[in-house]
Amino acid sequence: MDTRFTIPGTSFRFGLDPIIGLLPIAGDTVSLLISLYPILEAVRAGVRRQVLVRMLANLGLDWLVGLIPLIGVIPDAWYKANARNLRLLEKELGEHESARGAYG
Q: What is the pLDDT of residue 98?
């Protein structure tokens, strides 16, 4: 949702999230609903509440900023809430694997 495409001649990446967000309100809401799926999987994986709250906050901020007509697409493409959530999830699950390996 955040890094599928690259602007030629730059290293700037963006995904479907800002493209879908071009549709006023509905686009950002659809994008939010799609982005909730990894959080559901994180809940199923037993991710700590603190991490889930941060992931939801990333999506909430992304959704609110994206609601600003036309201009909201720019910070939406820059903020990359889904990529941030992936990093949080990888860090969380990596720590669980390390702890499991050390103690299990």
A: 52
